[in-house]
From TrEMBL:
An example molecular function term from Gene Ontology annotations: branched-chain amino acid transmembrane transporter activity
InterPro entries reported for this sequence: ABC_transp_permease, LivM-like
Transmembrane segment boundaries: 12-32, 44-61, 91-113, 120-138, 165-190, 211-230, 250-274, 286-303
Source organism superkingdom: Bacteria
Compartments where located: Cell membrane
Protein name, entry field: Amino acid/amide ABC transporter membrane protein 2, HAAT family
Main location: membrane
Keyword line: Cell membrane, Membrane, Transmembrane, Transmembrane helix
Organism: Thermanaeromonas toyohensis ToBE
Amino acid sequence: MVIPILRRPIVLGGLFGALYVVLKLLGLVGLINDYWQRVLDQALITTIGALGLSIIYGFAGQFSLGHAAFYGIGAYTAGVIGKVWGHGNLAYFLLALLAGVLMAGFIAFLLGIPILRLRSDYLGIATLGFGVIVRVAMENSNKLYPPLGGATGMTGIPQVANFDWIFWFAAGTLVLVCNLVTSSYGRAWLSIREDEIAADALGIDTTRYKILAFVLGCALAGLAGGLYAYRYPYLHPSSFDFLKSFDFLLIVVLGGLGSISGTVVTAIAWVFLLEGLRIVLGQAFVDWRGIIYALILIVTILLRPQGLFSGKEWRLLFPSLSQDRTLGKEGKHASFGG
């Protein structure tokens, strides 16, 4: 199967370049200080992870409540390599990121073979259970390998990932996902999401495509986790709990299932919104965080059940995504987000 080249690459590349230059200049003149630079970096890292879940749930329709587990697997895998062997070396940084991606993808493959036979809520419960297992394993990891830190967390990871690395990894992830969902892979995922039984009857290997979506999405979560480990000085199991999985799920749902533009915009807005609430509410935000999440989700479902973007895309950036996705060669179409 051939993955198409993203349309308007010059326009897209120019916009990425212009955005990068603007953000760098804002930092140089002091309009983005160190604090907000860290928040921006977190927003971009979250975008990478959310795009992974968008493949799994937004396009392939596989309900996952354990995405943060793979985010954590990538973070701890990359982090321990950097802590024990890396010492700030750029080659080890890239190797550690690759290891985080491969580890998250490999575990997703092993997990996906049995659990992707499940559907809907049952699949969500299974992934939620896996997330709990990973969280407990992280809390006791020092008993197996002391540098992992266990319940006290991991420190000593060289802080190699700066804004430059994170921005271009996010841009590359966006291009990769756009190409995937406009290819035959994306059409197969959409057909599975809309009606898995019909897709199977049409000869689509649904098991293969579901596992592929799950592995790719979790691998992107691993990449996001690796960047997180190399950007922030402290890893703790609580950073990869159910609420973090809920973060990713909210972003994909609020942005609109099957909308790349919606996922990107919502991921960035969500991180800045949470940080703003943390500043305004202080400790009360931590105490009421779960209720705030639930209220935002309820209001969105009531007022905008198909998400903020309703499966639509920015035509300027993604013209091939802004059209109805073709499910067959004979004029069958379906809009994402419906």
